[in-house]
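Hi V.,

You were right to ask for the full record rather than a summary. Here it is.
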Amino acid sequence: MKGLFKGCLTVPNLLSVIRIILVPVFAVLFYKDYLGWAVLALFFSGLSDFLDGKIARRFNQVSELGKVLDPVADKITQITIAVMLFIFFKNSSTASLKAFSWVFLFFIFKEFLMVLIGAVMLANNLRPAAAEIYGKAATFTFYSVMILIVCFGPEIGAITRFNENLVLPEPVMMALVVIAAVLTLVALLSYIPDTLRKFKGKAAKKKADIKE
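Predicted structure:
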């Protein structure tokens, strides 16, 4: 724990904390139907996610705490967004959107699975795998698609409330969500080889220690 907080006072960590604080802010604004402000909160959340990694690498401000805060901020943000959109579309007046709402549960399932795997790894003194290119691409796509839906989605669009001609057709919105879901699945699968390798390495080390 002492090593976790060593060198923790950095700009990237501050950005991660801000991203965590923005989660309940977004949820309340969304629930209260202040969608314009909710979009703004979501935009700043995505921007801080982009900047903290860039700053950490550029100015050598990578810290152990940052390696924990960043994925935690990502997971609670994505879970919250998926939950809010699931609830919204589950109550849609359109049968197709109501049926499609269940797709958002996949994003929630993926994040909870990642949290569970991470907890098991930490319990075994193993460090969870860092985000690969697939994970970063999936996260970027997720944020982009969800912001697009909140801005222009059918029945929900913060902007289309003022101009209905800008609304995303249902098939287009569904296709974008499916693309984000596929990339999320690819990202999930990309963690498996490194995770298995770490567990196998630990098992091999334990067996070697027993023989000694």
